[in-house]
Amino acid sequence: MKNRTIIGIICMIAAVAITFAAGPLVNRMTADTTAVLRLKEDVNQGAQLTEDHLEKVKVNTAALPAGILTDAAQIVGKYAVSNLYAGDCLTEDKISDNADSAEDIFASLDGNKIAVSVPIPTFAAGLSGKLQNGDIISLIFVDKDGNESVIPPELQYVKVITATTAGGIDKEDIIKNEDGSFEIPSTVTVLANTQQALLLAKYEAEGTLQAALVFRGEKEKADEFLAKQDAVFATPAPSQQENAGGENNG
Fold first, then answer.
1. How many CB atoms lie within 10 A of CB 43?
2. Which of helix, strand or coil describes residue 164?
3. How far apart, in whole angstroms, are the C-alpha atoms of residue 69 and residue 92?
4. Predicted pLDDT of residue 30
5. Of 185, 182, 82, 183, the residue nearest 131 (C-alpha)
6. pLDDT: is 1 or 55 the higher one?
7. At residue 250, does pLDDT exceed 80?
8. Contact 79, 97 (CB under 8 A)
9. Rounded Cα gap, residues 95 and 1, in angstroms
């Protein structure tokens, strides 16, 4: 009985000691907060950010991920790289100095690249309505008889400008119904060079095209895929290489 009493007293003393020792530490940790900026509302990809989009809140400093922006001057006037949502804290990789909306891309065309649209024959072919501006996709060609399906090397990494409904509404402007449904795009417009555009027209006449998502995210990474695609056109075709070799040997 005495042993139980002694153990009980020791436990009580330990509990009091822990409370007094840990309490101030916990208070210091919870009191260490940082004011950060976060979104008050959803922002579509390509939209310019304003002060009206932002609210300042205090959060536990220890819970902050690296790179959180805390100064409105770092955010206001920049553009959303992808769709952003209410409650999001902002980092440098979520915003850009340049807009990349469909209209911005159309306005920047200079003859080196062109915009070309191809039909989306089925719900699945258009990635179930989920294609977005800036996506890097591969285009799969399926012939009319279904005997051949291939990703042409020239269409392995293609940038989506927009997807558009039969009524002419671009994906970023589509308004959802009350039940969350929305009109599915029937065409996808991509950024292409002349050779790619000719291939797309040829494949559209000979069969169907289906989009496969390769990458969605930071512009720098997306540009790496596009650089790989450009390299395909910078390399001579095998027949050209053979001819060049024959000429040299001669």
1. 23
2. strand
3. 7
4. 52
5. 185
6. 55
7. no
8. yes
9. 69
Counting runs of H as helices and runs of E as strands, what totals does the chain give? 5, 10
In eight-state DSSP terms, residue 124 is G
55, amino acid identity:
E
Q: In angstroms, how far apart are the furthest CA atoms of the chain?
A: 108
Domain 33-96 has CATH 3.40.50.2000: no
Q: Residue-wise over 90-128: b if at least 16 C-beta within 10 A, else e?
A: beeebbbeebbbbeebeeeeeeebeebbbebeeeebbbe
| Residue of 125, 92, 128 whose CA lies nearest to 204 | 125
Counting residues of the chain whose pLDDT is more than 90, the rounded percentage is: 41
Give the pTM: 0.63
Paired tokens of 156: 């392995």
DSSP characters over 34-94: EEEEEESS-B-TTPBP-GGGEEEEEEEGGGPPTTB---GGGTTT-EESS-B-TT-B-BGGG
Cα distance between residue 188 and residue 118, in whole Å: 6
Query: How far apart are the C-alpha atoms of 140 and 63, rounded to whole Å?
Result: 44
For the chain, the domains span 33-96, 102-236
Count Cβ atoms within 10 A of the Cβ of residue 28 and give its class: 0-12 exposed, 13-18 middle, 19 or more buried: exposed
Rg (CA), the chain: 28
Tens-place pLDDT, residues 77-136: 888 877 889 988 888 888 887 767 788 888 888 888 999 999 999 999 999 989 998 999
What tokens were used for 7? 């153990």
- Mean pLDDT score of the chain, rounded to an integer? 83
